């Protein structure tokens, strides 16, 4: 299956390059790389951070290292909620390939039950080819 898609495929086994194969097909399921999925969001113990956890496949961290503007990964509505009435752009860092942490200050509008969105096209799975490197993740 192409990168990014999951499904079943017919597999035939040959011992000599195709002249003989098992008469019945073996159905196997392949799961390829997929777009990272946000699976959990929770506030830190003192509510000074918001911890965003992506699925166990991991991400490419959107190419970010160190502390960076959350807008590099999160959508505008989420960034606006994190900023709240404060003047400063919210800052984020990657704890690991699956956990993004956003710093919160006293002016934040982040609250339990809020929607959290990822900026479209920014996160790829860990190990995926870079855009323009040949294979398409979503084809």
Task: Explain the overall architecture.
The structure is a single chain. By secondary structure, the chain is mainly β. The protein is built from 1 helix and 7 strands. It has one helix at residues 76-83; strands at 6-11, 26-31, 38-43, 49-54, 68-69, 91-96, 99-103. The strands form 2 sheets. The protein has a 5-stranded antiparallel sheet, with no helix packed on it. A two-stranded antiparallel ribbon has the order 1-2. Strand 6 (91-96) and strand 7 (99-103) form a beta hairpin. The longest helix is centred in the middle third of the chain and has 8 residues, at 76-83. The protein is elongated. The chain starts with 5 loop residues before the first strand and ends in a 36-residue tail after the last strand. Mean pLDDT is 83; it is low at 135-139.
Q: Mind summarizing the main beta sheet?
A: 5 strands, antiparallel
**Helix and strand string, N-terminal first?**
EEEEEHEE
Which band does the percent of strand residues land in? 25-35%
Bin the helical content: under 10%
User: Which structural class should the secondary elements be placed in?
Assistant: mainly beta
What is the averaged pLDDT score?
Answer: 83
In brief:
With 139 residues, the chain is mainly β.
What topology does this entry show?
Elements: E1 6-11, E2 26-31, E3 38-43, E4 49-54, E5 68-69, H1 76-83, E6 91-96, E7 99-103
Antiparallel strand pairs: 1-2, 3-4, 4-7, 5-6, 6-7
